[in-house]
């Protein structure tokens, strides 16, 4: 498994960003082969974090490309700063 975490700071309207991600991006990322999980989290204070978990690195890399394009086209005004991206192999996990 491979995971990517994207942290966005300076989010101007977290509620609207969440709505757009749920309605617009979730269906897109759901079509990427190997998606195991996707989360969009409001961490408070203008910070939002996305976490994507894929069966392979290829899916995670593709999701990063898709996210960059989608944010530029759909969320630029709400997410004015580029995300901090961390990615790597999942080395321990538990899910129910």
Principal-axis shape equals globular
Q: Beta-sheet strand percentage?
A: 25-35%
The rounded Rg comes to: 13 Å
Counting helices, strands and paired strands, the structural category is alpha+beta
**Overall pLDDT confidence:** 94
Strand order of the largest sheet: 2-3-1-4
| Total DSSP helices | 2
Structure summary, number of beta strands: 4
Described by strand count, sense and barrel closure, the largest sheet is:
4 strands, antiparallel
Poorly predicted residue ranges: none
In sequence order, what are the helices and strands, one letter per element?
A: EHEEHE
Taking the alpha carbons of the first and last residues, their distance comes to 16 Å
What is the helix content? 25-40%
Structure description:
The chain is α+β, with helices and mostly antiparallel strands and 96 residues long. Helix content is 36%, strand content 33%. It contains two helices and four strands; from the N terminus they run E-H-E-E-H-E. It has a four-stranded antiparallel beta sheet. A hairpin with a 2-residue loop joins strand 2 and strand 3. The longest helix is centred in the C-terminal third of the chain and has 18 residues, at 57-74.
Concise structural overview:
The chain is α+β, with helices and mostly antiparallel strands and 96 residues long. It has helices at 14-30, 57-74; strands spanning 2-9, 35-44, 47-54, 84-89. The model has no long low-confidence stretch (mean pLDDT 94).
């Amino acid at each position: 498994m491979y995971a990517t975490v994207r942290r966005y700071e300076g989010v101007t309207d977290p509620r609207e960003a969440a709505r757009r991600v749920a309605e617009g991006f979730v269906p897109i990322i759901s079509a990427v082969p190997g998606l195991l999980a996707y989360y969009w989290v409001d961490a408070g204070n203008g910070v939002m974090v996305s976490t994507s978990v894929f069966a392979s690195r290829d899916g995670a890399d593709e999701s990063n490309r898709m996210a960059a394009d989608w944010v530029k086209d759909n969320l630029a005004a709400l997410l004015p700063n580029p995300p901090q991206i961390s990615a790597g192999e999942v080395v321990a996990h538990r899910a129910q």
